[in-house]
UniProtKB/TrEMBL annotation:
Its main location: periplasm. Residues 78-190, 207-356 form the Plastocyanin-like domain. It is found in: Periplasm. This is Copper-containing nitrite reductase. Belongs to the multicopper oxidase family. Homotrimer. Pathway: Nitrogen metabolism; nitrate reduction (denitrification); dinitrogen from nitrate: step 2/4. Keywords: Copper, FAD, Flavoprotein, Metal-binding, Nitrate assimilation, Oxidoreductase, Periplasm, Repeat, Signal. It comes from Roseovarius pelagicus. Its EC number is 1.7.2.1. Gene3D superfamilies: Cupredoxins - blue copper proteins. GO terms for molecular function: nitrite reductase (NO-forming) activity. Its cofactor is FAD; Cu(+); Cu(2+).
Length: 382
């Protein structure tokens, strides 16, 4: 039966109706039934439970000798999310969070994901892993209607950080991505990370920061529009999307998601690995008061890391990683260093570091005090 929502989507000019009816999209479903089977029965299987970003599920930094089949389960959830005060997004999500959870495996492991499309959803969905080989990253093998599930397995053949996102085909792809359907996977080398000299590197904590650009429409009066469901939001959202000017640029789904009570934490002397993804636009992370000791800008661990960076670049559709040892206590701001996007649109996180201040690294020689402007500071004036 053609519902009101389906009629609305059709009226918006969508070529392939993405609701309930089976569509041969995802740039055409592949038939791999004739391929020779692969016997992985000798490999150990482990199950990993995904956790909500910025946290990352339990994992080893150095892998055991033999590859494993790493099993994950992920639920697709369509829901309304408050991005900022009075600004609501009809979001499409992996596991109910924006970004989707970070998955961690090792080079040579097999990733086996069971993907559930909730029967309460309206849309078809799938998953495209930039870490995978063939079939549009798995997108053409995982297209599921509401109430369906599918299981995909792929071999993690190269180490690094990689984006995954929904890519159901045609105009659905950008809409689903900027509505929240993106995450990342980290494929560690089997012997762990290494620095620029090939020496082993370990991290004490890892945080996953997913950056999103949102396009929430406004009324003629300048108020943010709110919609009954994701389908109803499409026509007005598309108009804003095509203008290429986001209403919000945020970390982990909303303004303030990683500040205040939700700020990241660390201790002085700890090495923290920041994994940062942006599935749609370029970005430039910067840690105010700190640096990137070792930075894999393009996220690929076979390449030597850059050193001592002040700001690093994450290309749209990719994920990168930066390691920093915190040397001073205090509050650090982790921002997109397009400062308009950081301050005005929301792309800011805080890291609260506990420890003892080191005056050798920085010291306030004199606290602010008044001075006689007629006699002092003349050399500072034009």
């Amino acid at each position: 039966m053609l519902t009101r929502r389906a009629a609305l989507m059709g009226a918006a000019g969508i070529a392939a109706l993405p609701i309930l009816a089976k569509a041969t999209n995802a740039e055409e479903i592949m038939d791999t039934s004739m391929a020779a089977p692969v016997d992985l029965s000798s490999l150990k299987r482990i199950k990993r439970k995904l956790v909500r970003p910025p946290m990352v599920h339990e994992h080893e930094q150095v892998a055991p000798a033999e590859p494993r089949v790493v099993e994950f389960e992920m639920q697709i959830v369509e829901k309304e999310m408050e991005v900022d005060n009075g600004a609501y997004l009809q979001a499409m999500t992996f596991n109910g969070s924006v970004p989707g959870p970070l998955m961690v495996v090792h080079e040579g492991d097999y990733v086996e994901l069971t993907l559930f499309n909730s029967p309460d959803n309206l849309m078809q969905h799938n998953i495209d892993f930039h870490a995978a080989t063939g079939a549009l990253g798995g997108g053409s093998l995982t297209l599921v209607n509401p109430g369906e599930k599918t299981t995909l397995r792929f071999k993690a053949t190269r180490p690094g950080t990689f984006v995954y996102h929904c890519a159901p085909g045609g105009p659905m792809i950008p809409w689903h991505v900027v509505s929240g359907m993106a995450g990342a996977i980290m494929v560690l080398p089997r012997d762990g990370l290494h620095d620029h000299e090939g020496k082993p590197v370990r991290y004490d904590r890892v945080y996953y920061i997913g950056e999103n650009d949102f396009y929430i429409p406004k009324t003629e009066d300048g108020d943010y529009m709110r919609f009954e469901d994701v389908a109803e939001s499409y026509p007005d959202t598309l108009e804003v999307m095509n203008g290429l000017i986001p209403s919000h640029v945020v970390f982990n789904g909303k303004v303030g998601a990683l500040t205040g009570d939700n700020a990241l934490t660390a201790y002085q002397g700890e090495k923290v690995l920041f994994v940062h993804s942006q599935a749609n636009r370029d970005t430039r992370p910067h840690l105010i008061g700190g640096h990137g000791d070792l930075v894999w800008e393009r996220g690929k661990f076979n390449n030597p890391p850059e050193r001592d960076l002040e700001t690093w670049f994450i290309a749209g559709g990719s994920a990168g990683a930066a390691l920093y040892e915190f040397l001073q206590p205090g509050v650090y701001a982790y921002v997109n260093h397009n400062l308009i996007e950081a301050v005005n649109l929301g792309a800011t996180a805080h890291v609260v570091v506990q420890g003892d201040w080191n005056n050798d690294l920085m010291e306030q020689v004199q606290a602010p005090t008044e001075y006689n402007a007629a006699y002092e500071g003349k050399t500072a004036l034009p």
